[in-house]
Design brief:
Layout lengths: L10 H4 L17 E4 L2 H12 L6 E5 L5 H8 L3 E5 L9 H8 L3 E7 L8 H11 L2 E5 L7 E2 L2 E2 L6 E5 L10 E5 L17 H19 L1 H6 L1 H13 L23 H8 L3 H19 L4 E2 L12 E5 L3 H10 L5 E2 L12 H9 E5 L6 H14 L7
Parallel strand pairs: 2-3, 2-4, 4-5, 5-8
Antiparallel strand pairs: 1-9, 6-7, 8-9, 10-11, 11-13, 12-13
Helix pairs in contact: 2-3, 6-8, 10-13
């Protein structure tokens, strides 16, 4: 059996039903911009905010690195606030930093779970801070029946982490519309690159359903890659950790736009929640879970567990056909990290529970975890 880390692409995604669906947040926002990757939206947002040198952006010390690189490339100054092992900030320390000249509070909603937004909104009102929500890991999640991303002044989303699209990032402006973000002329995403990534996503679907056939089609995937390189198509990577300012003006592909129009966000949220609760019941008492709670509005990205040796456990699962994700391995040695952020980087492993994972695959994941008996991370 094979379990892909990300949702695969099907013909139904490329040719959605004719029934018209009301757009959901963030696609319902009037003032939004689409880019090939979310970090481009972050860069353009902070360029448009034009912060003074003494105006600091408060960023959580548990982060991927892409958002930090984008903010700094835009010319903004950063100070870090600590994230605890429950994926939430130390609000007292955040308040102390906010009253010492901070202009922006940047929050990351981890793996679909909301940050304590009422408290953070209150801090922003008290100290006059701009609130930016990073929802790269939390598309379709809600808190108190409000979509994550709609609570701040601005928000950014990474679409290909949740949807079967070849690329895509959205920047939403909820309150004040920044003139420099209106009418930006972006370069089109290379069609061949979008087709190549879409072919990879389609092969992931085939392999997830028929593993042997999928493996035999792997040469097709390699052929697509060779064709793209032979055509000398400009490489525009997605899903990587890195920063290239040359790619900040590239738009989301038309293929991604087509797929988005046919999505059923309620189906996606329901399937992910069902898979989460099923796996939670099967693994109860077998592993250390990072988050066991699942409030009604959470659309979980993965099922996060804590293991002593993240890489070794992930490799063992891959040998069994389960593509677990080693979450944010980069140690960020050049940046100040709290003890809890270092702990999370070392021990968080993500198990796939996306909308294409079947109940049988969930059971298979659990059975392999039972066999491996991964050593839990120390407290």
């Amino acid at each position: 059996m094979y379990v892909s880390p990300w949702p695969g692409l099907t013909l139904g995604d490329l040719f959605p039903a004719k029934t018209k669906q009301a757009p959901t947040y963030p696609f319902s926002v009037a003032n939004r911009s689409s880019f090939c990757v979310a970090r481009s939206g972050i860069y353009h947002l902070f360029r448009a905010l034009a912060l003074a040198p003494n105006e600091t952006v408060l960023v959580p010390d548990y982060h991927s690195g892409n958002e930090v690189a984008a903010i700094q490339a835009a010319g903004a100054s950063i100070a870090y606030y600590p994230i605890s092992r429950n994926l939430e900030p130390d609000l007292d320390q955040l308040a102390r930093l906010a009253r010492n000249g901070a202009r922006v509070i940047y929050v990351i909603h981890y793996l679909g779970w909301s940050q304590p937004m009422k408290e953070i909104q209150a801090l922003c009102r008290q100290y006059g801070c701009i609130l930016v929500e990073d929802c790269a890991l939390a598309l379709f999640s809600e808190t108190d029946r409000q979509p994550l991303g709609s609570l701040g002044d601005y928000s950014v989303f990474c679409l290909y982490k949740t949807l079967p699209v070849p690329n895509g990032g959205v920047l939403a402006q909820n309150n004040n519309s920044l003139p420099t973000l209106s009418g930006m002329e972006l370069q089109p995403y290379p069609h061949i690159a979008a087709a190549g990534r879409s072919a990879e996503l389609a092969l992931e679907t085939v392999r997830s359903r028929w593993n042997r056939i999928g493996k035999s089609l792997f040469n097709m995937k390699q052929s697509v890659g060779r064709a793209i390189r032979a055509a000398r198509v400009r490489p525009v990577p997605v899903g990587d950790i890195g920063w290239d300012i040359a790619n900040v003006n590239i738009a989301m592909s038309g293929l991604s736009e087509t797929i988005i129009q046919g999505i059923d966000h309620e189906h996606i949220r329901t399937r992910r929640r069902e898979n989460f609760t099923r796996l939670r019941s099967l693994l109860d008492g077998r592993v250390r879970m990072l988050r066991e709670d699942l409030d009604p509005g959470v659309c979980p990205l993965f099922f996060p567990i804590l293991v002593a040796n993240k890489h070794a456990t992930a490799e063992s699962l891959r040998q069994a056909g389960i593509e677990a994700v080693e979450f944010w391995n980069d140690p960020q040695a050049d940046r100040p990290l709290g003890a809890d952020a270092r702990y999370l980087r070392a021990h968080v492993l993500e198990l796939p529970i996306h909308q294409c994972v079947t109940p049988q695959q969930v059971d298979y994941i659990a059975s392999k975890i039972h066999q491996l008996k991964p050593e839990p991370a120390l407290c």
